[in-house]
């Protein structure tokens, strides 16, 4: 099904056509420049005429093939953006395991060089936030249902053992969140960014709390409301289509799983104000989010094609801008990045199994883009380019906090 979500994909910026010409000295200079950028990567580079830049760091784990001159020079001009652009449109091929190749590239590049602050400290106002969510999360419940678990959880799972199934790990994640918050029957919980409603329903069903869950995605809210009615939980879980900034009322716990990276650092103070006015004097909260070790923008291709407006923050930014201004005490921080790598491995396998159905819904360019997004994300968590933080916090003056990490 073609939709407005594919407008950005419909006009190829690169051709997949192979140039029937021999490579020139400038072409080989460009390839040498690219090789220099990732000198330590165990990856082989190949031009359209067979000219090769071999791996000098050991046996290659894969090969990157440039099909034409425009794709080649685009990597010299802006590799962060054009790696994804050329791959999704078929102007570059990756032979070998995609994650293994990306692991090598990430490790060779090292920490991302910071871009100017004005490129990433932008505000996501209410209209922009809704549009950004619409472009990613409203691709269709049918699409996500092809490869997510039964709970439709589109956030990092928690694997009690490496052999745990994705379904087991997503339930374990929800239970871990509830135990970290030490939820008690009868308490009131506000959830900001509830996705398809799995966590809100779990909290009500398993821990006896009442939940108000907000989200700006129309499709997700409709799905969550239907599920609440079907499970007989509509009297205990209220799903509200609204922006987190409009939250009102007082609650015993605040929870946000996978929303913070969509807020934007310019709006962190506003989020902290919402949490402050929402929590009771004995309230506590949990933020679960993709982050990084130091401040910096998200990869420009991911921002353009996958997650417009997204910003994975450093822990320091969350502490300084969301929690500290309101005198919240940080109780616990856990990094689950390897659990996210495992989650993405499961998602990739399921996505690949459903690739034919996905191509029928959208097109092959969409499939290539999402394959790269999922593989690149898995590689980012394996190499430590990205982190997954769970931060538990409470009022600085309260002792009504869990005695241990999970209660």
Structural class: alpha/beta
- Low-confidence blocks of residues: 115-120
Question: Shape from CA axes?
Answer: elongated
CATH class of the largest domain, named: Alpha Beta
The total of beta strands comes to 11
Question: How many structural domains in the coordinates?
Answer: 2
| Backbone CA Rg | 22 Å
Adjacency order of strands in the biggest sheet: 7-6-5-8-9-11-10
Query: What name is given to the CATH topology of the largest domain?
Result: Rossmann fold
* Mean pLDDT over the full residue set: 91
Distance between the termini: 47 Å
> What CATH architecture of the largest domain do you see?
3-Layer(aba) Sandwich
Strand content: 15-25%
Structural commentary:
43% of the residues lie in helices and 17% in strands. It is an alpha/beta fold and 407 residues long. About 1% of the residues have low confidence. It folds into two domains: 84 residues, no CATH class; 276 residues, Rossmann fold, CATH 3.40.50.150. It is elongated, with a radius of gyration of 22 Å. The chain contains 16 helices and eleven strands. It starts with 6 loop residues before the first helix and ends in a 12-residue tail after the last strand. The relative contact order is 0.13. Helix 2 crosses helix 3, helix 3 packs antiparallel against helix 4 and helix 4 crosses helix 16. Strands 7-6-5-8-9-11-10 form a seven-stranded mixed sheet, sandwiched between helices. Strands 2-1-3-4 form a four-stranded mixed sheet.
